Amino acid sequence: MSVPVDSFALKYGLSCVAASVAESVTFPLDITKTRLQMQGEHASNIKYFAYRGMLKTGYGIVIEEGLMSLWRGLTPAILRHFVYTGCRMGCYEYLRDNIMKKNVDGYFPLWKSIIAGMSMGGLAQFLASPTDLVKVQMQMEGKRLLQGHKKRFNIL
After folding, report:
1. What is the pLDDT of residues 73-130, one digit of tens each?
2. Least CB-packed of 9, 59, 121, 150 within 10 Å?
3. How far is Cα 59 from Cα 130, in angstroms, rounded to an integer?
4. Contact 37/142 with Cβ under 8 angstroms?
């Protein structure tokens, strides 16, 4: 059984895989960014100022929590891409080609592309928001454990 090259399922799958690979490679940057942001929210507590900058934050996570902690929360981040990226990319083309349609002259006007892109981007973000919440909660789990709080998650 072969899948047509221009099929929705193939485009959806390829966009999800590509986004997941990119997410996996850049995830340590995301967790250090999240830790720095959370540190800023807790500015009244001086203990939170252990991290200064991205490299020192990443180094601190590795030393305090272990190397694999740099990928804590990757599972919901990848699941997010199966919702967000797949919906955004695949549904955008479907909306553009089948609902918005090209003009009589065969061109697709910019305003229709903008409306289709904004609509699908907004819908995809709305659908993927719960996975962002879980991802950030998991990214902060290591810090919570170091502070003596109970474990909330069992997966990396």
Report:
1. 898 889 888 888 888 887 888 888 888 888 888 888 888 889 999 999 999 999 988 8
2. 150
3. 29
4. no
Q: Which of 15, 3, 4, 153 is nearest to 83 (CA)?
A: 15
Paired tokens of 14: 């390829």
- Measured distance CA(113)–CA(73) in Å, rounded: 33
Stretch 125-150: mean pLDDT: 81
Dihedral angle computed from the Cα positions of residues 33, 82, 80 and 151, in that order, rounded to the nearest 10 degrees: -100
What is the token pair recorded at 139?
């990214």
Nearest partner of 61 among 49, 69, 53, judged by Cα: 69
